Amino acid sequence: xxxxxxxxxxxxxxxxxxxxxxxxxxxxxxxxxxxxxxxxxxxxxxxxxxxxxxxxxxxxxxxxxxxxxxxxxxxxxxxxxxxxxxxxxxxxxxxxxxxxxxxxxxxxxxxxxxxxxxxxxxxxxxxxxxxxxxxxxxxxxxxxxxxxxxxxxxxxxxxxxxxxxxxxxxxxxxxxxxxxxxxxxxxxxxxxxxxxxxxxxxxxxxxxxxxxxxxxxxxxxxxxxxxxx
Length: 229
Description:
Number of domains: 1
Strand order of the largest sheet: 3-2-1-4-5-7-6
Number of helices: 10
Radius of gyration: 19 Å
Largest sheet: 7 strands, mixed
CATH architecture: 3-Layer(aba) Sandwich
Helix content: 25-40%
Number of strands: 7
């Protein structure tokens, strides 16, 4: 039995993930070309996080986890999710290399999160039922959900309201290069995608505590708190 377990262990350790290029492989490189965008974003987040009393965080759309690492300095548990397997694998490898003990990477598609399973769908709860945190981060994500996956703002706001008390979300405007690329062949979606409609939907669930534009990028960070919390 010991030899069998050792053989299984050796086999697992020999596995390696083939790092194929994906749409998200160059995310931080592309973001770094936006002037002071990443630096300003980190400064704003650090200031806000230092004033919040948080222990648990959901980093939704974490990519390779640069902001999960930042948030891990303010929280005891950061759940980092992304639908891109390659990005989560890179984050997992980074966690192993740097010996992080409070960042937990998961492959989760927020447009199709893990459902409830088992007997009467009650044996194992759904992802949204299980993930109860103090703070949700949704950075550079809203356009991918609203335009890339055609999810209305109202549904996105409701989803994030299920997760936790606070929400830090980044609004990416119509004039942003990524939004223009995403709607190049589906401009009909733009009539429902603007900051006014975004705020109207989210204010049904949240109160806006702070708002700040990120450098010269045109993108805006919002700190929100769930109603009645």
